[in-house]
Amino acid sequence: MSSDDTTIENTEIGRVQNTIRNVAEDVVGYPLSGITSIDRDEDSWIVAVEVIERSSVPDTQDILGRYEITLDDDRTVTGFRRTDRYRRDDMEQDR
């Protein structure tokens, strides 16, 4: 097995990650800020993402939304829901 075969892009999680990067903004309606988790259950992938719902100056006042996007085994979006909404500064204070 070459080193190219072991890269994240060549794994199922990597393919799910690429799918989310390509579809998240269209599905949720806001620019993707990042993927926070990828989980698998019996028949679907559940991907948690953060999006910028409102940009502000300074950026600590940005409003971020956390969403779960569900994909089936073919990596087709089957649903999404917002799970949280907060100011970027609120998130940074919790760390």
N- to C-terminal distance: 40 Å
What is the H/E order? HEEEEH
Shape assignment: elongated
The overall pLDDT, averaged over residues, is 89
Helix content: 25-40%
Radius of gyration: 15 Å
* Number of separate strands: 4
Strand content: 35-45%
Biggest β-sheet: strands ordered side by side in the sheet: 1-2-3-4
- Detail the poorly predicted runs: none
Instruction: Supply the CATH architecture.
Output: Roll
Question: Helical segment tally?
Answer: 2
CATH topology: Nuclear Transport Factor 2, Chain: A
CATH class: Alpha Beta
Structural class comes to: alpha+beta
Number of domains: 1
The largest sheet, given as strand count, sense and whether it forms a barrel, is: 4 strands, antiparallel
Describe this entry's structure for a reader.
The protein has a four-stranded antiparallel β-sheet with strand order 1-2-3-4. The termini are far apart. It has helices at residues 12-28, 88-94; strands at 32-40, 45-54, 63-71, 77-87. It has a single domain, classed as Nuclear Transport Factor 2, Chain: A (Roll), CATH 3.10.450. It has two helices and four strands, in the order H-E-E-E-E-H. A hairpin with an 8-residue loop joins strand 2 and strand 3. The protein has 95 residues and is of the alpha+beta class.
